[in-house]
Amino acid sequence: MKETDIAVVLVSGGMDSAVACGIAEKKYNLAMLHINYDQKTKEKELKAFHSLADFYKAEKKLVVDFEYFKKIGDTSLINKDLKIPDGLSKGGIPSTYVPFRNAQFLSVAISWAEVIGSPAVFLGATEEDAAGYPDCRKEFYDIFNKLVDVGTKKDTIIEIITPLISMKKKDIVKLGLELGVPFEYTWSCYKNNDRACGTCDSCLRRIRAFKEARVEDRIAYEFQT
What we know:
By secondary structure, the chain is α/β, with parallel strands linked by helices. It has one domain (6-168): HUPs (Rossmann fold). The chain is built from seven helices and five strands. It has a five-stranded parallel beta sheet, with helices on both faces. Strand 2 (29-36), helix 2 (42-55) and strand 3 (60-65) form a beta-alpha-beta unit.
């Protein structure tokens, strides 16, 4: 039985954010938020967002454009002159890192949550990605929750919830299947808007997760070992 409350869910269109939707919708009605930041796969990610919003019968939808990330630069996820590397990232900050992106996404989510009276903001961040992305660490979200507490109205209570933060990708796949998450609607590739490349870090992590979970990934890849 759902509560009457509504939860904001940050939805990239990827597998992790889809599972976050599956978790949140067991307790809340959903207000789904998607942010375009001129990433190379923005068309496919936006399509995935709308497919997921339809699947979960989102009570509210909001799409926000962050064009200024292109002007800030310094990320291969946006800059067409920078090539997205193949292979799994191995230490250090990868070129696909978008400086302080998640803090800005959360700021929009918290603002919207305060306006619509939502007590919770869900997102599918995992620490498995944190070796390369500093804003994917549990510590980051713990601190941001404190910022929300002091930066909103006195009677506002909003909690940032990261239910997948300590989970391995294969276990996220298994949980998603238990929850009936439509993984075929999701998109993880950093490079392509049509057929997933199968060679970028995000594709490789997804492929490995489905193989380790011993289930079929129902999206098509250009290359897959």
